[in-house]
Amino acid sequence: MPKSQFSLIPQRFQLHDAPNKDEFGEKFWPYLVIASQLTGILIVALLLIWLISDLGGFGWDGTAAQFNVHPLCMVLGMIFINGEAALSYRIFRNDRKVVIKAVHAILQAITFILIVIGLVAVWQFHNHNKFNNMYSFHSWCGLITVLLFSLQLTIGAVMFIFRITGERIRSYYLKLHVYFGCAIFVMAIATCLLGINEKLFLKYPHSYSNLPSGAAMGNCLGLAILTFGLIVIYMLSSPIYKRKPEPGNYSLSALGGEESEEDPIKDG
Amino acid sequence: MPKSQFSLIPQRFQLHDAPNKDEFGEKFWPYLVIASQLTGILIVALLLIWLISDLGGFGWDGTAAQFNVHPLCMVLGMIFINGEAALSYRIFRNDRKVVIKAVHAILQAITFILIVIGLVAVWQFHNHNKFNNMYSFHSWCGLITVLLFSLQLTIGAVMFIFRITGERIRSYYLKLHVYFGCAIFVMAIATCLLGINEKLFLKYPHSYSNLPSGAAMGNCLGLAILTFGLIVIYMLSSPIYKRKPEPGNYSLSALGGEESEEDPIKDG
Where are the transmembrane segments (chains A, B) (predicted)? Predict the structure, then answer.
């Protein structure tokens, strides 16, 4: 379906191949893409301002400056880049699948590296200051989320890059991959919100209730992360926004439908 | 498709009308139902044990005993009953739609009453003890979640009980209703986790890191809530578990497919 020339979004990102006809949803798509990207940029901006202005910047010396590397890496990785990696299948809906798959895999690998740096930063910080590890609910949720993410990354690589199984098993696994991708993203959001909350109670034990500027900034960062999550999950879960399955490939649905996991030879 | 006689789940709850063929998913359904219900019961049990044994039980006297009414009502309402209300369309998939719609509406009305009691309890507790209101990230998230829930309940009643609009607008709204139902449920989970975290930092400002039994119990309650949420959202979002649309009614999809919003006269 040809689009109006006045569209805010370049032709290649448009939704002219939506498999389920929904005019309202199609018109809404460009605004969702813009909203997701603006909210993502807002998260990164608020995160940097909060960590540099209110929490003292970055370092690697066992002080709070080293601790700050932890939220920097985890929010950048598990929220922003992980969210963009998931969205890449939707936003670049009219590009070659094999390219998007590479973008998705590279972004998730970058997320994994950020996770490792972020965890080493907080672990060394705790040990340097003789703080206990792994007591808070944030740390429990974080551990589960990071383990699930690593498992998802490993199985995803084995199934979709090295392709050790047949198409039928891969097709079943794809549904789980999509569901767990969304579930891990949501758990990462919950873990970040818990981490921000924990930081505010530890940093402002007596003054949080008066909402000093650093605490208000932390709350705003949390709201931005929550908003980004709601937009991203809506874009991922709505059936009308899924890629059109290519002919000759099987099609699967999970969380509102996922495109086919086609053969890269056919695809490229 | 006839089911094995050895099924754990009575015939009426079985998935013999799944519109999208998926044998693995069909076999998995009874276990999902059992897991969701056991996790829901676990939440209520852990909540009561935590609030009575570790946090001092209930009252309405401005003390911590009155505060405890707040988590009791919010978790019971926004998590357990709200989750069951959403699941009612899936679990009672072979029953008459008009009955399920009534069950859904009544459960959500009970949730709303619990929300009001829970909010009055904490507001009076704060004012009685001269604590500030609405400073924490938990309170910000909670306010947004409760406002969205109230809006959803109001518009849902206007659209699906009083039916002030035509079928076409109702069909568009249904998709939003299903998405926001899931989104509000997820936000309620995040808010509860933040509330538990906040309570633990306020109750154990110096000893949380040694994980006293009350703190460990709070963490476990949080994990149970998170697990319940992941199971419920999986059951709601998987297209194969949606109700089969009835003939002559329009069918819609959101978050993996929602059944038709048929006319109650046709239905009953």
Answer: 28-52, 64-81, 102-125, 137-164, 176-196, 216-236
Contact A255 B254 (CB under 8 A): no
The single-letter code of the amino acid at A127 is: N
Q: Answer whether A237 sits within 8 Å of B238, measured CB to CB.
A: no
In the three-class reduction of DSSP (H, G, I as helix; E, B as strand; rest coil), residue A38 is classed as: helix
- CB nearest to A135's CB, from B209, B222, B254: B209
The token duo for B71 is: 């988590």
For residue A219, give the nearest of B140, B215, B240 by CB distance. B140
Phi/psi of residue A252, each to 5°? -135, 155
> Span B134-163, mean pLDDT?
96
Q: Which residues of B touch A205 (CB under 8 A)?
A: 205
Which residues of A fall within a CB distance of 8 Å from B136?
Answer: 197, 200, 208-209, 219
Q: What distance in Å separates the CA atoms of residue B80 and residue A132, rounded to the nearest whole number?
A: 33
Q: What is the ipTM of this complex?
A: 0.87
Under DSSP, the state recorded for A258 is B
Looking up tokens 């605004």 gives A31
Vertex B122, ends B117 and B127: CA angle to 5°? 125
Q: How confident is the model over B20-46, as pLDDT tens digits? A: 567 778 889 999 999 999 999 999 999
Q: Does residue B200 contact residue B208 with C-beta atoms inside 8 Å?
A: yes
Tell me whether residues B254 and A256 touch, CB distance under 8 A: yes
Q: Which residues of A touch B208 (CB under 8 A)?
A: 135-136
**What mean pLDDT do residues B182-198 have?**
97
In whole angstroms, how far apart are CA A236 and each of A20, A84, B152, B230, B256? 15, 11, 22, 16, 10
Cβ neighbours of A66 (radius 10 Å): 19
Give the span between the Cα atoms of A64 and A129, in whole angstroms.
10
**Tokens linked to B147:** 């406002």
Q: Would the CB atoms of B257 and A256 count as touching at under 8 Å? A: yes
Contact B141 A198 (CB under 8 A): no
Q: Domains, chain B, ranges and CATH? A: 22-267 (1.20.120.1770)
